[in-house]
Amino acid sequence: MRLKPEQTKLEMSDAYFYVFGGPHKGDDPAEPVRIVDKKGFIKVQRGRAMALKTKAKNYVTAMKQLWEDMAVYQPENIARPDFYLCLGARVMDFSSTDFEQLQLLTDLEVDSLEPDDDMIIVAANVDQL
After folding, report:
1. Domain residue spans in the chain?
2. pTM for this entry
3. Of 89, 80, 88, 91, residue with least CA distance to 124
4. What are 89-120's pLDDT values in tens digits?
């Protein structure tokens, strides 16, 4: 992240991953984010992202919140975020311009979890204009 160690913070973790964040830019609630596995390998690195830890049974609500919070309104369109789901020991990458389609894709993977299993959701997008 090209930051001093004291500028980074552990945002959240689970049995397989750590999510580290850096300082916010101005009023933007998003921040630089790294998903790091327990062995120390960087799995995802994004310059503008937000992360939430939730239970599998509540993941759609969390995704909807990030879908709206991370939208970037541009003159010609709305840039929707990319999603990274930490499901057990896997990080899965999803992208869509339609929330219902995104949910159909993620439901296939999240259905393999128990309702009370923890999962981490990271949404990342381009910088605000």
Report:
1. 5-124
2. 0.93
3. 80
4. 999 999 999 999 999 999 999 999 999 999 99
